[in-house]
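Technical annex, item 7. During the second reporting period the consortium partners agreed on a shared format for inverse folding records so that results from different sites could be compared directly. Each record opens with the tokenized structure and is followed by the designed sequence. A conforming record, contributed by the partner at site C, is shown below for reference.
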């Protein structure tokens, strides 16, 4: 696939939509292929919910992927005052800033009652039910997918998340299995 040179085609499209996905892709394109960056040393890993990521090949260092699962009491999350919510969001922004390009993706999830569960029923037909797979007090409220050199690096960064210190929530960290 041949990418357009900087300023070509994407610039025209961006002027048509300065706040939409084209503009977002143009900003990502400019960040990835700015002067002084060797395009051969950059690979686009993926885009998940608006997180576009360039992973510069880190010479001699294997990187593993980790899923950070954020659990908590949805009632307490819903009861946050606007000031508490701003502080909560600012803590997540601080985490994202500290983690930088290690974050591959992430998102806050809708409340568990909005979930739909799909299972095989009797006679192997598919059955959908409203609600989460498991009924628990603590629900999965969001996640981050990140890449890091080791678990210690992930633990250090995850300690910045506000859910680590809230009494009703926590962060589960799981390495992803690489099937090659």
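Designed sequence (site C submission):
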């Amino acid at each position: 696939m041949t990418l357009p040179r900087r300023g070509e085609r994407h610039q025209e499209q961006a002027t048509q939509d300065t706040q939409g996905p084209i503009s977002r892709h143009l900003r990502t394109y400019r960040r990835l292929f700015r002067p002084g960056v060797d395009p051969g040393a950059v690979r686009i890993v993926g885009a998940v919910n608006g997180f576009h990521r360039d992973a510069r090949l880190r010479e001699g260092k294997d990187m593993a992927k980790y899923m950070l699962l954020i659990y908590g009491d949805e009632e307490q999350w819903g009861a946050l005052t606007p000031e508490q919510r701003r502080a909560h969001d600012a803590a997540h922004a601080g985490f994202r800033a500290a983690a930088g390009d290690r974050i591959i993706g992430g998102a806050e999830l809708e409340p568990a009652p909005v979930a739909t569960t799909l299972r095989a029923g009797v006679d192997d037909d598919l059955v959908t039910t409203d609600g989460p797979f498991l009924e628990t007090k603590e629900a999965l409220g969001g996640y981050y997918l990140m890449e890091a050199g080791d678990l210690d690096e992930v633990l250090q960064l995850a300690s910045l998340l506000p859910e680590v210190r809230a009494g009703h929530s926590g962060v589960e960290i799981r390495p992803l299995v690489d099937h090659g």
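Confidence is low (pLDDT under 50) at residues 1-18, 21-60. Strands lie at 42-48, 51-56, 64-73, 103-108, 116-120, 126-130, 138-148, 169-175. All partners now use this format for quarterly exchanges.
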